[in-house]
Amino acid sequence: MASVFRRKEWVNRHTGKRCGKSHPDATRRISTDWYGSFMGADGLWHKENLGSDKTEALRLASHFENQARLRRAGLIDPKADGYADAERIALPQHIDTYERSLKTDRVSDAYATMTGQRVRKVIAAAKLEWISDLKPGPISETVAAMKSEGVALRTRSHYLRAVKQFCRWLVKERLARDDALFGLKVRVAISHAERQYVRRALNRLEYELLVERTETSDPAFKMSGEDRAWFYRLASITGFRSAEVRSLTPESFDLDGDEPVVKVLAGYSKRGKRSGRDDVQPIPVTAVELLGRFLAGKPVKTPLFAVGKWDVADMLRADLRRARARWIRDGSTGKDRRERRKSEFLATPTASGEVVDYHSFRHSFITWLSMSGAPVKVVQTLARHSTPVLTMNTYTHPKMADSRLALESVPVVRALNDDEKDVANARIAGTEGMKIRDRGGKPRGKTSVSSKVFLASRGELPEVRRGAESSVNTEENYQFSRGKETADGGSRTRNLRFTKPLLCH
Fold first, then answer.
1. Alpha-carbon span 357 to 315, nearest angstrom
2. Strands of 26-39's sheet, edge to edge?
3. What is the distance between the alpha carbons of residues 207 and 72, in angstroms, rounded to a whole number?
4. Where do the H-state alpha helices sit in 12-78?
5. Are the C-beta atoms of 199 and 191 separated by less than 8 Å?
6. Which of 2, 41, 114, 266 could form a disulfide with 61 if both were Cys (CB 3.0 to 4.6 A apart)?
């Protein structure tokens, strides 16, 4: 039976704080708060401070005891206590725990931090405080409102996906009963019209001119012109991303084996961070000699390129401007230079809004592979993609000229007229050269087997002309049909085509 009482305690007579009985200034007094005594679900007696109101304290003690009795009888789910405890913790603290759990998984710290920041931004903008506040409406409205801030659709999808992952984690950790955002869908496929940042691939002439002009240019961004040119070359012959190329050292290359390759450590590879394996990519044999000369004399165990992560875009734009300006100046006449200035050669962005950035080299690499006629599976493997759909739909950029060139290989078959059809059918049936007459007595030319069968069924099979041009009813063919002796004493198989009554009429 639950009961309440006031606790007798020892306090310091000068400070009023609780102290031990042996303290020289200790004095005994009765507490102002009421304590409840009740039997818990574990069958033991518990004592809890229930406040200064005796009536309320007695009600709470009875309630706790009734709840414990129902739990012992199995009428209340023990998980309910965990859900209630989680509800009393604010969402920012849950997000901190979620971010720490991500860092213990097989993901990078940068990804865990970025995911936590995205969840915090959405939760703070939606003004949500507790787990019970998580609902699809406020979350979707908050993410949709990011459009007015200039956030692209793909980025908004990443924010929504991060919040959905957080809600699934709450269910997995038994902190929430169900996934509050289960019915909220994330846009996966984004149409070309909805993209705010459209990347294009460089054609071969643009790429060659950019590398050539960059290699002979002055140092910039802590890199010589040759280093910057190789920074672009490696991305276009391997398909590596910016972080992967910046992580390369002289030890990353194996140029002496039968198959020259370059290796990216798993910590720098997008795929390797999940699989835990290093990425090994083959290198074109034609680039081995040039690459060997570039690597000669480079310090060991030191990154080949000193450019920072945030300087790559500015460096590439500057080199593109210099290469385009020099290309325009190289025009032979004033008219030629004006035409070049109007073109989109080495331009970023173009009139249609397409831009060139460092990832465009990866797009160019995959586009050139697909246009070379390589099988789709080979292109997917070299692109290091999990699905060929991503390879062919996102990373290939065929031009109209490429499509026109491919169409030229498609055979165009001219439709045959009636006479040509009869000739073709007669050639297939082996009756070419047989002439018949129509019902009016006029020659019809060559007749197919199907036509003869039809005429024979009606009793109108015309007479075959026997002449020098007829090769069907001659004595030679007659002897051939009966079986002709061969040099070794054997006889040829009878050809039933010449002994059928229908054809030998």
1. 10
2. 3-12, 26-39, 45-49
3. 75
4. 54-72
5. no
6. 2
* 424 half-sphere exposure, CB direction, 13 A CA radius: 7
Nearest to 491 by CA among 505, 479, 477: 479
For 424, residues 6+ apart whose C-beta sits below 8 A from its C-beta are 416
The string of pLDDT tens digits covering residues 464-480 is 444 444 444 444 444 44
Judge contact between 82 and 173, C-beta under 8 A: no
Query: Which pLDDT score, from 0 to 100, does residue 78 have?
Result: 73
Asked whether the whole model's pTM tops 0.90, one would answer: no
The least confident of 137-151, 322-336, 347-361, 401-415 is: 401-415
Q: What is the pLDDT of residues 428-442, one digit of tens each?
A: 766 655 555 554 555
Q: Which pair of tokens denotes residue 81?
A: 């206590």
Burial class (CB in 10 A: 0-12, 13-18, 19+), 307: buried
What is the spatial distance between Cα 365 and Cα 207, in angstroms, rounded to a whole number? 11
Do 169 and 176 contact (CB within 8 A), yes or no? no
Q: What number of residues does the chain have? A: 505
- Report the sign of the C-alpha dihedral through residues 393, 396, 401, 405, in that order: negative
Residue given tokens 């996102």 in the structure block: 394
CB atoms within 10 A of CB 64: 20
DSSP state of 320: H
Beta bridge partners of 8: 30
Among all chains, which residue has been given the structure tokens 């039976």? 1
| 462 vs 245, residue with greater confidence | 245
